[in-house]
Amino acid sequence: MTALTLLQETLDGVQPEIVVSVGTDLHLFNRLIDWVDDWLGSQEDRPTCLVQYGASRAPRNALGVSRMSRDELLDLYAGAKVVVVQGGPGSILDAREVGALPIAVPRWPENQEVVDGHQIAFTETMERHGEAVAIHSEDQLRWSLDAALENPDCFRKAPRISDPTNATAFLEAEIEKLINDPRNPQMLKKAWSMMRSRSSRANEGRGSRATNPAGKFVRTSIDNRGLQQP
């Protein structure tokens, strides 16, 4: 069975109200799936939810698929009321590219969910610039999911269409401030490496989708207005 057929059979024509993605890292992120499962189990009128769970366990209270293509994931993000992602650069930027303001839950190195703390630092940086809602506890996630379903428009923003070169230059300056901070000397090197890789692919035109009439997709999705210096 192909991945496409598996996703179609899993969804059975349903556009989930909530889409959750933990990415494809080999490290487990069962904590996020547990939090989502527990919240869904507490809902009297349970919303439809799809969890892309990667190497982690499948959800109990939601539809689940281990992997899907990036195009499929972006289409689901675009149609969802709420998008929940791990706190990685690629995951957050993918959600922003289709107009979602993602609820971002960074992996914790102390739980062996990731090798270092780059997701924590990156998620907090993106939240400061209005590009994500950073979550550090189960209570925060519950409150954010409740708020997003009550006012889904607050968790949608215009898709980020920008000049990748300018956006990357600004992020480099922001990230190097944190890298040079003695309190977290190595924290964002991995995140910056990923950002440079994304920018390089954009400039070379490899692996990108064609921009649709609404201008929904660009490879690097942070515009100058969204990342102005304070």
Keywords:
6 strands, alpha/beta, 230 residues, six-stranded parallel beta sheet
Percent helix range:
40-55%
Report the end-to-end length measured between terminal Cα atoms: 51 Å
Order the strands across the largest sheet as they lie in space. 3-2-1-4-5-6
Give the averaged pLDDT, no decimals: 81
* Class by alpha and beta content: alpha/beta
Oligomer: single chain
**Main sheet overview:** 6 strands, parallel
- What radius of gyration results from the CA coordinates? 17 Å
Weakly predicted, low-confidence segments = 206-230
Globally, the shape reads globular
Treating each run of at least 4 consecutive H or I residues as one helix, how many helices? 8
Number of strands: 6
Textual characterization of the structure:
The protein has a 6-stranded parallel β-sheet with strand order 3-2-1-4-5-6, with helices on both faces. Helix 7 (164-179) packs antiparallel against helix 8. Mean pLDDT is 81; it is low at 206-230. Helix content is 42%, strand content 9%. It has 230 residues and is of the alpha/beta class. The chain is globular and about 45 Å long. Helix 4 (89-97) links the parallel strand 4 and strand 5.
